[in-house]
Amino acid sequence: MTVPEDEVNARAHAEALLKRWKFIALCALAGLLTGLLATWLSTPVYQGHSQIFVSARAVADTQQLAQVSSFGQDRVQSYADLVTSRPVMEEVVAELGLEQRPDELAQQVKASSPIGTVLINITASDRSPRGAADIANAVARHLIDAVGELETPVGGGAIPVKLSVSQSSDVPARPDSPRPLLNLAAGLFGGLLVGVGTALLREVLDSSMATSEELGEAVELPVFGSIPLNRIGKQQTLVLEENGAGGYSRRAEAYRQLRTNLQFASVGQAPKVIAVSSALPGEGKTSTAVNLAAALVLDGRRVCLVDADLRRPRLADGLGLVADAGLTTVLIGQAEIEDVLQCGPGGLQVLTSGPVPPNPVELLASDRMGAVLRELGERFDTVVVDTAPVLPVADTVGLALHVDGVVLVVRARKTGRDQAAGAAAALRGVGATLIGAVLSMTQDRRGVGSYSSYHSYSPVGPPTGRAAWLHRIGRPRGASQSHSQSSSPEPVLAAKSSRKKIR
User: Fold this and answer.
1) CA-to-CA distance for 234 and 226, rounded, in angstroms?
2) pLDDT tens-place string over residues 363-379
């Protein structure tokens, strides 16, 4: 059954709001604090209220009485407009001895006349409750005087209408403003509105990929796996076990799944020399290359890990290896491969980058680089090459023709579709073989405990076989075997490897 488009959009919006609920909550809190601050900084203002009633004077003739009443109703709005006139304000200032000018006092006074009535409502605002009441009452009195002067017939006589104070202002007991509850409600509503609007706008403008399906559509490649974000040891490179010997974390299992999917990447012969790259820096390509190589070693393969990111090499520091000589030393003819290979954890052979050269593009695209990778391919079952990002520099584009396949690593919720597609197009443009993609640093929490059941299959005693070297490298150098067994094993996140002397 086809899901309606409106329902799909509603679900997408709901997921966007749920994903950014912390940001929305912060906006709501900021709105509340703004309302509270506005209340605290506001000066209390009191209001006094008086009322004038407009009536017709008593006459003997009934017809004349009706005419006078109609005359009064027609004049009520004009009388209300006279409330803030300069003559009235001048009299109020003089009576009360106020410091304001008449025009300033007029800003504190308002008058209104409900339609269909002969009432004039006067409201006066002041910082003092007594002042607000006095101003409202004084305005009412002087309005009556002003109307009397204006409506007096030429030559004298009684005016046709009568104005009287129907309600005098009492001293207000509480200020009219600020209103704390109203300010807090307005701040909360405004904060929520800003938070929700910003979250939805970011979702609409966000071109990053959050799922493997989105990544596969963007780069038109099979996705070999999703690697969860490492929230504990972000600076550590090698992830072998994160829950002690024999345990399985989501990240460790994700790398094992990547290894398995990579072995089935080709129907015929599996690729031997595999380059791992990304569109931009900081997408997890180095971690993916290292842990893919470690997972292949666990599968009993002879693996060589090559650091071909000659601009920002990281393998030597990440694995605790010598960085003085390596790939660049071999490429310029100063050493042979066997002279600079170093032994990493569990038999993983590592060829570090060596000194950073001034011309990495020329070195990586050279025939000598192709010869080095072919020689490594003959010596090892699999060669994993960590390369530079595709979009910032041309290093990987030149190197891509010397490898059997390229795996593109894309960071979830950060790398844009256009950036990932552009990197794939750049590699395809030079004839490189793209075999798949990996979605790294995913933040999906739904499966945090999905591998906890594996603990029931863990060995009770110390690990044996291939798991033994994982357990050993997790101990501090020099620790005794008995001490290692008596204390709970630390999570194995990174390991110092043994070093092979460079001749």
Assistant:
1) 17
2) 999 999 999 999 999 99
pTM of the full predicted structure? 0.59
Q: Where are the alpha helices (DSSP H) in 274-390?
A: 285-298, 315-319, 327-331, 337-340, 360-365, 367-379
Strand ranges in 308-459 using DSSP code E only, listed in sequence order: 342-343, 349-351, 382-386, 405-411, 434-442
CA distance 188 to 192: 6
Nearest to 237 by CA among 310, 307, 302: 307
Residue 300: phi, psi to the nearest 5?
90, 15
Query: How big is the chain, counted in residues?
Result: 503
* Token duo for residue 354: 């060596």
Identity (one letter) of the amino acid at 142? H
Q: Do residues 350 and 341 make contact, with C-beta atoms less than 8 angstroms apart?
A: yes
- Phi and psi, residue 426, nearest 5°: -65, -40
Kindly report the three-state secondary structure assignment for every residue of 153-204: CCCCCCCCEEEEEEECCCCCCCCCECCHHHHHHHHHHHHHHHHHHHHHHHHH
Domains delineated in the chain? 1-40+181-191 (no CATH), 46-167 (3.30.70.1130), 212-453+464-486 (3.40.50.300)
| DSSP alpha helix (H) spans, 20-106 | 21-41, 62-81, 86-96, 102-106
Q: Quick check: 342 and 499 in contact, CB under 8 A?
A: yes
The three-state secondary structure class of 355 is: coil
User: Which stretches of 206-276 are DSSP H helices?
Assistant: 212-219, 250-263
pLDDT in tens, 237-293: 677 544 443 336 788 889 999 999 988 876 567 789 999 999 999 999 999 999 999
The encoded tokens of residue 360 equal: 């990495």
- Angstrom distance (rounded) from CA 388 to CA 364: 11
